[in-house]
Amino acid sequence: MAHIARKRFGQHFLSDGGIIDAIVQEIAPQPGDAMVEIGPGLAALTQPLVERLGRLTVIELDRDLAKRLREHPQLEVIESDVLKVDFAELAAKAEPKPLRVVGNLPYNISTPILFHLLGFAHLIADQHFMLQKEVIDRMVARPATSDYSRLSVMLQWRYEMQNVLFVPPESFEPPPRVDSAVVRMVPLAQPPAVDAARLGEIVQVAFSQRRKILRHTLGKWLETHGFQGEFDPQRRAEEVPVAEYVALAQAVPP
Fold first, then answer.
1. 160 and 229 in one domain?
2. CB-based burial label for 227 (10 Å; 0-12, 13-18, 19+)
3. In this structure, which of 9, 33, 164, 223 has its CB flanked by the most CB atoms within 10 Å?
4. pLDDT tens digits for 169-187?
C-alpha cells in the first residue's frame, strides 16, 4: 500500500534518481562510517547509503514509515521526534568514530533541528542536509547582506558551511512550493571558546529589530550587562561580523 505524504510532518519524498545520486556523491559515504539519517521517509536516500555503509541508523517520527524501515536488517530505526534524540548517546555507541549526520529535514522544523544539533557539534564529523534553499541562503550569508541573520551568526561561529547542490521542486513527490538545496556543514576543529547561551542571547537581542540601529537594542542590553569595551552601536545587526558577536559574548561579564 502506497504511503500518502502527511502535511503535519512536512513530508515531501525525494524521487529524482539523478538528484539522489548527486547527493550521495556529495556525502561520500565510506564502509563502516557511523552515520545517522534524519527523516528517511520512503528510503530514497537510505537505500544507496546503506549499500555503501553496511549499517545505518535512521530517525523517523512517522509510525507507519518506521514500521516499514524495521523490515530492513541493516537499519537501526529510532522512532522519535529528532528534537528529543540525544546525539551524545549515538556518538558514544559509535566511538571511536565520529558521527556523520544526513537527512532531508522537514522544512517546517528545520531551524529547531539545526539548533538542536548545534549542542552536539563537537561529536560530529560533518552534516549534509536537504533544506529549503532560502534557509541555506541565510545559513551561509555574509555580513551586510539581506540574508545575514541570527541563523547565519549562530551557525557560522561553529561550522564551515557550503551550499553544494540545487534541488528543484519536481525532484519530490509531492513537489514542495519552494526550491531546495543541500548544505554541507563541517564543525570547526577549534571554534572560539564562548558561552553558546550568552552568544545566542546577544544575537537574539541584536536581530530582534533588525531595521533599527543597534543603539536602541543591543547597545542598551550591553550597558545593562556592564559591558565596558569598544563597540560601535551606530550599525544595524546585519552589519556586525560573526567574530565581533563572538567577541562581545566573550567580553560581557557573566
1. no
2. middle
3. 33
4. 999 988 888 999 999 999 9
